[in-house]
Amino acid sequence: MDYFKIQGGDPLQGTVRAAGAKNAVLPILAAALLTDGTLRIPNSPKLRDVRTLSTLLEAMGCRVQREDSGAIEITADGDILWEATWEQVRQMRASICVLGPLVGRFGRAKVSLPGGCVFGVRPIDMHLKGLAALGADMRIEAGFVEASVPGGRLRGGEVFLGTPAGPTVTGTMNVLMAATLAEGRSVIHGAACEPEVGDLVDCLVAMGAKIEGKGSPTLEIQGVEQLGGAEHHVIPDRIEAGTYLMAGAITGSRVRVEGCVPAHLWAPLDALQRAGYEFEIGTDWVEILPRRQRPLPVDVTTQPFPGFPTDLQAQMMALMSLADGTSVITDRIYPDRYMHLPELLRLGARIRRQGSTAIIEGVESLSGAPVTASDLRASAALVLAGLVARGSTSVHRVYHIDRGYERIDEALAGLGARIERLEEA
Ligand code: EPU
After folding, report:
1. Closest Cα to atom 17, ligand 1: which residue?
2. How does residue 116 score in pLDDT terms, banded at 50, 70 and 90?
3. Cβ of 165 less than 6 Å from ligand 1
4. Per-residue pLDDT tens for 133-157?
5. What positions carry a catalytic annotation?
6. How far is the CA of 304 from the centre of ligand 1 (A)?
7. Averaged over 268-283, what is the pLDDT?
8. 3-state secondary structure labels for all residues of the chain
């Protein structure tokens, strides 16, 4: 098992490039199940989650070709097993994205329920409700979601997918993918507006789907008889881009992120601006400018897009732990997503939690210590904190971070950070 050893205190300087978005490429790879044509993603990021999903698709009978560049091609033209086991799904919740395509194309699916995760209960009731609205019989049996479609083909339907925490991203994607092959017209009300949903729409349209309302909370789908292969470039990863900008912020350095979409980053950029940072922004790049003073305290509440993303909440908390004053962070999407909090305390942060809210009294400096990563974004927050903590910080169990960041250690080292990947003794 690998860990990172970080010697804090060095300023960063330079440019990083955002990779393809993890949360776009995963459902898009699953969309390959909708056709017997080949789906090619030339800029698929080289992530552990992408390998995990490719392995699942291979086990289901798809042909998967990966190139050294990361490019990936998937063809689901043989006998496809419409089943995903608990071992496969529990490795990665996004495996649930095979459910919609299986029900849409084969009228059958048996996919293990993902269960909870380190940041609390994560139900999939809306996925089931949406597929049921298209005519699928959905049952829970022995830990599996079992779906069957009387007559074999879904029929168009209308459904509202909002949850008390807002729309569901992968729920919208599952129902959308299934509806592309349903007979007639479907409408998803309360659809998630995240850019990754829009990217899936673009890919499905390239495969021959008829979808209107991209980027809006109402998606209208006119089902077609079949979809074909396509080549699709996924959008840049806005969370990875935001994480590197926060690395610039926490070290007070100039960091330029290229190959990103600034319009996907308004809420985090606004939060950083309120914290006193300045930017230069181009068509596909953002550069955070150096700042000598501590960040100003800002309050942040996570919200569905275009609000502040829950996937940057931990990184923002690492930054606010050094603010010149007290800030309040509330996670409305995942009220229990605070595994980074006790680890930040080990570095000397002063944070207390009240329900879904964390109150952060900024300190002048953090001091390095061994900490343990417990999920992807919590790990990113600990790495950011390690970049400024006095002395040495070791971040253990970094396999979590490899799930969603393409070689973050090399990218940060390229910016001048003293970070090494080592093997646990
Ligand atoms: N929810 C329900 N019922 C459902 C589905 C969701 O009540 O059937 C609730 C959830 O409990 C949560 C809220 O709705 O409170 C939103 O959850 P959502 O379904 O949107 O999350 P997801 O689709 O499972 C995706 C990302 C997450 C990201 C969330 C929120 C992928 C593969 N995952 O998860 O990404 O945090 O949207 O934006 O797209 C990450 O990359 O680190 C990550 C966890």
Report:
1. 168
2. low
3. yes
4. 999 999 999 999 999 999 999 999 9
5. 117
6. 10
7. 98
8. CEEEEEECCCCCEEEEECCECHHHHHHHHHHHHHCCCEEEECCCCCCHHHHHHHHHHHHCCCEEEECCCCCEEEECCCCCCCEECHHHHHHCHHHHHHHHHHHHHHCEEEEECCCCECCECCCCHHHHHHHHHCCCEEEEECCEEEEECCCCCCECCEEECCECCECCHHHHHHHHHHHCCCECEEEEECCCCCHHHHHHHHHHHHCCCEEECCCCCEEEEECCCCCCCEECCCCECHHHHHHHHHHHHHHCCEEEEECCCHHHHHHHHHHHHHCCCCEEECCCEEEECCCCCCCCCCCEEECCCCCECHHHHHHHHHHHCCCCCEEEEEECCCCCCCCHHHHHHHCCCEEEEECCEEEEECCCCCECCEEECCCHHHHHHHHHHHHHCECEEEEECCHHHHCCCCCHHHHHHHCCCEEEEEECC
